Amino acid sequence: xxxxxxxxxxxxxxxxxxxxxxxxxxxxxxxKRLGISEPAIYRHYENKIDIxxxxxxxxxxxxxxxxxxxxxxxxxxxxxxxxxxxxxxxAFENSPALVAVIFSEEIFRNELVLSDKVKxxxxxxxxxxxxxxxxxxxxxxxxxxxxxxxxxxxxxxxxRLLVKRWQMSNFMFNLRDEGEKLFVTLNQLINxxx
Length: 194
Description:
Structural class: mainly alpha
Distance between the termini: 49 Å
Oligomer: single chain
Number of domains: 1
Helix content: over 70%
């Protein structure tokens, strides 16, 4: 999907975001980091927005397999969702700067193409979680009395809040360990008999 040079530019863009935040990603900073001229970057990407779109697409490509594997899995619904979250936590731990890009809707608000891309990612992820919850209901793993839409919001909101806390703490706690604790609680809530 990406050329070798485009991939290199994206990797350095992620490093820049990790060090200086998303505002630190400029063509000037990127060209210095790469040791090439700004026009050389423009041969591969039109502008900063194009780079950010590519970063979002990169993330989407790397995580779409995670969702697909779990939709087709024979595990329980809660275990499938847990696996999705664990794999995301691993991706974020391997590249923490992705958090700044993926969860930057407020920064993207004025850039329609970026906000649309983030919205597409969120809708795709929500649809996958919804499908898993519905399958769990059909298999008797999740109570029919629980709203699928609300459960999807609870799962996705929990992931977002945990990852944002991790980011705001400057990545000072183990995301996977905290994710495991979160899933113990979510599992207990879903399995309450009413």
